[in-house]
Amino acid sequence: MASDPNFWSSHQIAQEKMKILSTLKTEVQDWTELSRDIEAASELLDLAIEEKDTDVANEVRTEYEKVCTSLNDLEFKLTLSGEYDHRDAIVALHAGAGGVDSQDWAAMLARMYIKWSDKKGFTSEVLDRSYGEEAGIKSVVLQITGDFAYGHLRSEKGVHRLVRLSPFDNDHARHTSFALAEVMPKVEHGLDIDINSDDLRIDVFRAGGHGGQNVQKNSTAVRITHIPSGTVVACQNERSQHQNKEIAMRILTARLLEIERSKKEAEMAVLKGAHVSAEWGNQIRSYILHPYQMVKDHRTGVETSDTSDVLDGNLDTFITAFLTEQLGAENN
Question: Are the C-beta atoms of residues 101 and 138 closer than 8 Å to each other?
Answer without folding.
Answer: no
